[in-house]
Design brief:
The structure is a single chain. This protein has 248 residues and is α+β, with helices and mostly antiparallel strands. It folds into three domains: 10-57; 62-167, 2-Layer Sandwich (Tetrahydropterin Synthase, Chain A); 184-247, no CATH class. The chain has helices at 2-17, 92-97, 102-118, 123-128, 130-145, 164-206, 209-225, 236-247; strands at 19-22, 26-32, 35-40, 43-46, 52-58, 62-72, 78-89, 150-161. Helix 3 packs antiparallel against helix 5 (130-145).
Length: 248
């Protein structure tokens, strides 16, 4: 009787040890005597103790932060760039069989690819076409990780650290560009004002009384702003005639 109880206990422990529970986001790759027989899950599964071995694989998206990489751009500027990569396992069997550690392999591949791709672009392109570079990085990484059962869904270049000298040079360039625009806008304003003044002079020349009205309007504006100041406009022609008589 004691022996039968012992056998039942051993069998029960043997059966219970073979019960595995996998979460919704997990899959179990089963190896039977060293040979892969497939994947199971999620939920409760049974593996034969001693004979079977199960490797858990998570299907959730992994967010990997690529550490800062030293990159020399195509126009020979040394920068530091870091990025973030979003990837997940789409084929658990490949992620276990075809690569020793898919997390480590993907992280190393992302670092080398980041240096390679950014080294082929100029600094202006890195700063202005970041979305295009992100898509290019994602396509390359996804192509190389596909045999591992890994899908790279997104790549984002987070930060580009420029040398202090380059930051000062870019600041000077931006300041010079703004000064250039300001001078162009000022010159265009002067040209437009001169054209309008020419048109106004042509109109006044046809109607001399308009000049007197303009004088009166100017006097009213000055009287409002400075009550203690009174200005009497004197025609330039009157002064010229006075000076000519004095010289003669």
């Amino acid at each position: 009787m004691f022996g039968l109880t012992t056998v039942l206990i051993v069998v029960g422990v043997f059966i219970l040890s073979g019960i595995k529970i996998l979460n919704e986001y997990e899959r179990g790759v089963i190896f039977r005597l060293g040979r892969c027989i497939g994947q199971k899950g999620p939920g409760m599964i049974f593996v034969i103790p001693i004979v079977d071995r199960m490797v858990r694989v998570s299907l959730r998206t992994v967010v990997f932060d690529v550490p800062p990489q030293d990159v020399i751009t195509k126009d020979n500027i040394s920068i530091k760039v870091n990025a973030v990569i979003y990837f997940r396992v789409v084929d658990p069997k490949k992620s276990v069989i075809d690569v020793e550690d898919f997390l480590y392999a993907t992280s190393q591949l992302s670092q080398t690819t980041l240096r390679s791709v950014l080294g082929q672009a100029e600094l202006d392109e890195l700063l202005s076409s970041r979305d295009k570079i992100n898509d290019h990085l994602q396509a390359i990484l996804d192509q190389h990780t596909e045999p591992w059962g890994v899908k790279v869904s997104k790549v984002e270049v987070k930060n580009i650290d420029l040398p202090k000298e380059m930051q000062r040079a870019m600041a000077k360039q931006a300041e010079a560009e703004r000064e250039k625009r300001a001078k162009i806008i000022g010159a265009e304003a002067e040209l437009l004002a001169s054209e309008k003044l020419t048109e106004a002079a042509a109109v006044i020349a046809t109607q001399p009384i308009a000049l007197q009205l303009r004088y009166l309007q100017t006097l009213s504006e000055i009287a409002v702003e400075n009550n203690s100041t009174t200005i009497f406009p004197v025609p330039v022609d009157f002064l010229n005639s006075f000076l000519n008589k004095k010289l003669s």
